[in-house]
Amino acid sequence: MKKLEQEALKKNGTDFTRLGFALFFMVAVLAYSFLSNGGIPNNMFLAVAALIGAYMAMNIGANDVANNVGPAVGSSAMTMTMAIVIAAIFEASGALIAGGEVVGTIKKGIIDIGAFGGNPDEFIWAMMAALLAAALWLNFATMMRAPVSTTHSIVGGVMGAGIAAAGFSIVSWSTMGKIVASWVISPVLGGIIAAVFLFSIKKSIVFQEDKIAAAKRWVPVFVAIMSWAFVTYLTLKGLKKIWPQVVDILNYIPLVSMEMTKKPSFSTALILGAISAVIIFILTKRKLVSNTTKLENSRESVNTLFTIPLIFSAALLSFAHGANDVANAVGPLAAINDAVVNGGVASKASIPLWVMGVGALGIALGLGLYGPKLIRTVGSEITELNQIRAFSIAMAASITVIIASQLGLPVSSTHIAIGGVFGVGFLREYLHLNDKSNIIDEEKLVIAEEKSTLNAYQTELSKLEAKKEKEQSDYERVVELYKLIAGEEKLIKSAKKHIKKNKKIEYVKRDAIRKIVAAWIITVPAAAILAGLIFYMIKGIMV
365 versus 339: which is more confidently predicted? Predict the structure, then answer.
């Protein structure tokens, strides 16, 4: 009992420490907001909203960031501590350096702000309800180890609060249709692209007799494609805020002249990606030529060549995520800040530095305190990952976003990453079945032969048993036939079991698929219902 008490205290002590850090951060944000905006009417609303924004940011760090580093951790390319440190630094850097200066107060244009009639009070209540509902849903999903889309969570929250405030007519149902479509588009695109890259790497390197020679030829190509994809992705998604400064720097380089634009164009991003790809190809080629003499001709050695690219991909994905998705945490908070400070409802709102800081620090803190649970789920609890598989998932994450953004398709980075995990797992199942097909055919031939022998024994037994006058040798033969028949039946049963086992091997855990897909489907309605209830509660208290 004493040992049980000690273990319980030890476990609870860790949980209370985490909770203590989280509460300290939230209270600090509340105090800072209240004290720094003391002369503004309704500053208490702003302080409470800042508290909820901090809570939301921590939940994004705990749930969403796992998609960027989970595959790298699951493949043992990075330790958990290393992943958390890198992701926290790059998430916060992305949010503070490249996070949007201006965000739409209503995420994705989900509701018509004109329905509020310029009434700032109900607008503030609706945004607070949306923010709190999304944060609560993310917290629940993290507890259940279900990686869900934070964008869809805040969209559901805004929709539910908007309906509660002004009725169903406030919702842009065409936008909602696109979001529903993304539930299918995102994971399918991510899964297909991840599977294609994994199969390409296996075909060109892993399945070759001389794997080292194949690696020298093809690893620089795949790493160059990765650098092209990530520089293009980062330029489009992570450098929008600081693009004019980037152009100024590039124009100082001889032979480089770029036209000043507010944000990078797709062609500009492609060109920058191509330049980086050529440089990375040359450097990787030289490095491989000097280092491959130490490698063995095995799959494990080939896997190690993708470790460093995986670390870079986790860092770049985290930076782009921090720059692009920080608005999920601070967009509604910025809207509330604008409504409180200016006393009106606007479709766009500038994000003060302190609000962006809440988002950046909250994401990093949430990742450090509660992120490991979802990192393990993404990295190892859906399917087994190695460096090549994790590399394919990272490639899918960047390339899918690039393709979808140019086609105008709504996608979720969470759904893409998890779809990529599913894709590599299902490809492994497909390749396994192909490898085992010859064995299964041989087993079927064995079963056919054994059945023929069994039928012969049974026919002979029937004749002997039907014989009226039996001799001693007949009785001995009957006993022998029963033993032979039992042996044949055992062999046939064993062969059938072996075939069934080979056919039923699953590299993707079906329970994980069902749980995650169910969470995706109910994210928007669950957040919407929560937001509606919270809005009515706030309104009931205030009116």
Answer: 365
| Statement: residue 26 has pLDDT above 90 | yes
DSSP assigned state of 107: G
Q: How far is CA 227 from CA 61, 265, 317, 393, in A?
A: 25, 18, 12, 14
Question: Coil, helix or strand for 409?
Answer: coil
d(CA 336, CA 46): 7
Task: Give Cβ neighbours of residue 323 (< 8 Å, ≥ 6 apart).
Answer: 94, 95, 97, 98, 99, 100, 237, 238, 239, 240, 241
CA angle 191, 386, 512 (to 5 degrees): 50
- Read off φ and ψ for residue 349, nearest 5 degrees: -145, 135
Tokens of 109: 């244009």
Other beta carbons within 10 angstroms of residue 70's beta carbon come to 30
Per the CB < 8 A criterion, the answer to whether 232 and 272 are in contact is yes
d(CA 301, CA 211): 9
DSSP symbols for 297-328: SSHHHHHHTTHHHHHHHHHHHHHHHHHHHHHH
pLDDT of res. 501: 59
Q: Are 100 and 403 in contact (CB under 8 A)?
A: no
Q: How far is CA 136 from the centre of its chain?
A: 19
Cβ neighbors of 207 (< 8 A, separation 6 or more) are none
Of residues 62, 61, 34, the one with CA closest to residue 48: 34
Q: Where are the beta strands (DSSP E) in 100-214?
A: 102-104
Among 78, 191, 263, 255, CA closest to 427: 191
For residues 188, 192, 193 and 196, what is the CA-based torsion angle, rounded to 10 degrees?
170
Q: H/E element holding 348?
A: strand 348-350
C-alpha 417/C-alpha 122 separation (Å) is: 37
- How far apart, in whole angstroms, are the C-alpha atoms of residue 32 and residue 352? 13
CA-CA-CA-CA dihedral for 49, 50, 52, 58, to nearest 10: 160
For 56-104, the DSSP string reads HHHHHHHHTTHHHHHHHHHTTSS-HHHHHHHHHHHHHHHHHHHS-SEEE
**Torsion, CA 52, CA 58, CA 61, CA 62, rounded to 10:** -110
Confidence class for position 392, pLDDT limits 50, 70, 90: very high
The Cβ-side half-sphere exposure at 362, using a 13 Å CA radius, reads: 32
Q: First and final CA of the chain: distance in angstroms?
A: 53
pLDDT at 134 over 90: yes
pTM of the complete model? 0.79
- The DSSP element (H or E) to which 118 belongs, if any, is none
Quote the DSSP letter at residue 111: B
